[in-house]
Amino acid sequence: MAELSTIARPYAEALFASARDDQAGLASWSDLVSELAQVAGQHDVREALSDPRLNAAQRIELFTGLIKSPLPASARNFIELLVSNNRILVLPQIAEQFEILKNQHEGTAAARIVSAFPLSDEQLQQLVAGLERKFGLKLKPVVTIDPDLIGGVRVAVGDQVLDASVQAQLARMRDTLAA
């Protein structure tokens, strides 16, 4: 079976092309796609949508009934397309791909920052400013805390990872000494 990201990519690209030309704007579409993905990612919803006793129309009504935001006609058409192609459960991966396309279009990227300790606003601003110079992109930081790092930070921007944690330094020292 194909990777889910491979299946999701054409849907995300088509949705992005449509959303880019929509007067509602990319930000509102991003929020809507995120909500759709959250609903589709729920275990109970996945089970219900996989029920063979439901026909396509029932699946569409079930899914759209769970969405709190108002659905424009184009979003409803997209949901109908996903249901008819048995791809509604791929929505979380479609949302990821959509967000990547949106970030590329805006010249931004998500920076996943894992820190051993909570960062002050000033420390975060300094870190993000340095990372923006390094990557040449406007970064949107997402910070999580992991005490196992002992100290320092680990940053992931796209597929690039900068690991300046004490844990990584100790692992490098261990590997050097073992060699």
From TrEMBL:
Gene3D superfamilies in UniProt: N-terminal domain of the delta subunit of the F1F0-ATP synthase
Source taxon at top rank: Bacteria
Membrane topology of this protein: Peripheral membrane protein
The UniProt record lists the keyword Membrane: yes
Cellular component, GO annotation: plasma membrane; proton-transporting ATP synthase complex
UniProt KW Glycosyltransferase keyword: no
Keywords, ordered alphabetically: ATP synthesis, Cell membrane, CF(1), Hydrogen ion transport, Ion transport, Membrane, Transport
Compartment annotation: Cell membrane; Membrane
InterPro entries associated with the record: ATP_synth_OSCP/delta_N_sf, ATPase_OSCP/dsu
Segment forming the signal sequence: none
Molecular function per GO: proton-transporting ATP synthase activity, rotational mechanism
Pfam families, A to Z: OSCP (PF00213)
Stored PANTHER family: ATP SYNTHASE DELTA CHAIN
Record-stated family: Belongs to the ATPase delta chain family.
HAMAP family hit by this protein: ATP_synth_delta_bact
Protein name: ATP synthase subunit delta
